[in-house]
Design goal:
- It is a multi-pass membrane protein.
- This is DMT family transporter.
- It is found in: Membrane.
- With 322 residues, this protein is mainly α.
- The longest helix has 29 residues.
- 67% of the residues lie in helices and 0% in strands.
């Protein structure tokens, strides 16, 4: 969930596990990295795919808002530490902080919380598949909000195909039996929130002159502050701290939010945003595999078939006319 992330000027859809932090500027090209980008690409897919499993395990002991708050705390700690090591500063302009406050809500606090609530009643496999619909929502919203993003027949066909895949995943022909409608709706709303957040970032945080790391650290810090205010009002302190749930929250934040941003940011710089954002299409595969084999979640034939259709539609929406 998550970003996260590619440059906002050319960003695609983040995954839920992605940090989903704003990256609207192009920083200097990095030095050659020791680990091949293909290995880091696969590692990122694993991290984000397993994020849905971590959410499921964490919500067994903690309230959804508490899971999200812990995730944000550890994710922010990673980015702020790296920011300090690199001797970079947080943004200074008040206008930038105002936009980051909105971006933190749309790209972090809201979708992270919705996915956590969704997984109280739906399996992590379904949550991972719902996350793959973000490019479909992005396509629909960009037609209205971004004048430079005009639809083509192929991209519109991708939207139609993608949502046909969603109906397949949910088993529409049998009345959506076996799926909790509220939990599924929350997961889809979370995916739509990512799309809205990315469009907001592209319109408001482009060309700020700040580094991607600086903006992302500030955004996660603001998201943490938002959740720190809200969580005590709607939850009670946990009665126990099972080690599996605690470690899941730590992994969700430090790996799935903090480290994942740094890995994808490096991929954007080295391999380009198009390659970097293709990891989105591997996330539901990893999430489904982890849910079935590690959590014992049941999988019917229509879910993987529908997921493939969703991903095909999402891929079509990312095509551009010559």
């Amino acid at each position: 969930m998550s970003a996260t992330t590619s440059s906002a000027a050319t960003s695609a859809s983040p995954a839920s596990g992605s940090p989903t932090a704003a990256s609207p500027v192009s920083d200097p090209a990095p030095r050659r990295r020791a680990v091949d980008w293909r290995i880091r690409f696969l590692a990122l897919a694993l991290i984000w795919g397993f994020s849905f499993l971590f959410i499921k395990v964490a919500t067994e002991a903690f309230a959804p808002l508490q899971v999200t708050l812990g995730r944000m705390v550890f994710g922010t700690a990673v980015l702020v530490t790296v920011l300090a090591v690199k001797r970079q500063r947080l943004p200074r302009a008040g206008r930038v902080w105002g936009h980051l406050l909105v971006a933190a809500f749309l790209l972090n606090a809201l979708p992270f919380s919705l996915f956590a609530y969704a997984e109280l009643t739906i399996p992590s496999t379904l949550a991972g598949i719902c996350n793959a619909t973000t490019p479909l929502f992005s396509m629909l919203l960009s037609v209205v909000a971004l004048a430079e993003d005009r639809p083509t027949r192929r991209r519109l066909a991708g939207v139609g195909l993608g949502f046909a895949g969603v109906l397949t995943v949910l088993g529409a022909w049998q009345g959506f039996s076996g799926q909790d409608p509220l939990g599924t709706s929350l997961a889809l709303i979370a995916s739509a929130s990512y799309a809205v957040g990315w469009i907001y970032v592209r319109r408001t945080l482009a060309n700020t002159g700040e580094s991607s790391l600086s903006l992302s650290a500030g955004q996660l810090a603001l998201g943490t502050l938002q959740l720190a205010v809200v969580t005590p009002l709607f939850t009670s302190p946990p009665s126990s701290f099972p080690i599996a749930s605690v470690l899941s929250v730590v992994a969700l934040g430090a790996l799935g939010t903090g480290l994942a941003f740094l890995v994808q940011y490096g991929l954007v710089q080295e391999a380009g945003p198009t390659i970097a954002t293709m990891v989105t299409y591997l996330v539901p595969v990893v999430a489904t595999t982890a849910g079935v084999f590690l959590l014992g979640e049941h999988l019917t034939w229509n879910e993987p078939v529908g997921a493939v259709i969703v991903l095909m539609g999402a891929a079509l929406t990312q095509t551009r006319s010559r």
